[in-house]
Fold this protein.
Amino acid sequence: MTQLALVIDLNVCVGCHACVTSCKQWNTSGSAGYLSDMDPYGADPNGTFFNRVQTFEVGEFPNTQTVHFPKSCLHCEDPPCVPVCPTGASYKRAEDGIVLVDYDKCIGCKYCTWACPYGVREFDEQRKVMTKCTLCVDRVTSTVLPEPERKPACVLACPANARLFGDVHDPDSEVSRAILERGGYPLMPEWGTKPSNHYLPRRKTELHIHPEDLERHDNPLKIDGQLPGSYPGAGREDYAT
């Protein structure tokens, strides 16, 4: 059975939020929208986002790292949000494994929010319905868009190519190979929900610096091996440059 999912490379994500803004732009104007923004520039802003990037530091000084961690619905293979829904609004598509919400059936009871251990469902305060990442299902199933554009908006927008999209059940797919070769892992597997989205871990790169690397031998400020002297005239602060 096909299971579409995202694979996110934490080693190259720079936390630019391009995935967040592109997701918001596409979905607020598409079949999943409108995604509300309430008092966005005020003291207590509120809004609906399908994708968010959490940034935090790990380690102890001076050995610290800044980690950018994008998180959205993980499209679990055994999603706990589906059976708790009293109206059947939350459901998982059999043909591609995408978990969706039928807004016409949603009554805004928030049971699915309580059931989701990842905190990735968002209640739209204006429409009074539960919303979540749809993997841009309207894009990936489109027969109008060119084949290269049939991917989630966040994948297409990422400048670092930190986001991959494909069928994690296909062993020959790009995402499956990345998970296998790079040690990809699901988020909080102990919950038994079998998240489809995976993360590629950060990698440590050992840097060797040699003494000769610390001096720039082609320094334009050096003239015959000597730094230029000061110019006696006024208004020539750019003499050395």
User: Anything to note?
Assistant: The chain has a mean pLDDT of 88. Residues 4-200 form a domain with the Alpha-Beta Plaits fold (CATH 3.30.70.20). The chain has one domain: 4-200. The first helix runs from residue 18 to 28.
